[in-house]
Amino acid sequence: MTIIESTTEINQPVEAVYAFLSNLNNHQQLMPENIYNWSSTEDEASFTIQNMAKLAIKINTRIENQELTAIPSEKAPFDVELKWNVAPNANGGTTAKHTITADLNMMMKMLASGPLQKLADHQTSKLAEMLV
Description:
alpha+beta; Alpha-D-Glucose-1,6-Bisphosphate, Chain A, domain 4
């Protein structure tokens, strides 16, 4: 299992960050430019990652103001789980952690782990920008 993590600090209360993340319509704003054909509802999203794959995800679990997990809703090129954890930080804001867990064989790991890390880092930095 390949685990990719990215964390950011946001000067907003946990409730505001969780509310934003819990609606997949908002996630399009967090995506890099190599994501296209975006389509979403509050609970599901589908998109294409340039030169990689088409992915359709759905919210699998919600723990209010703590955790949000999305999994593929259609056959994906590999098993993947996208998770956001939010927790209050010492400054009265929120620590948001994005974790991508993927079941990649050695070849896929070499090809995909770099782009997946870039995706996670991009999403956390965009989240921090959006929720100032």
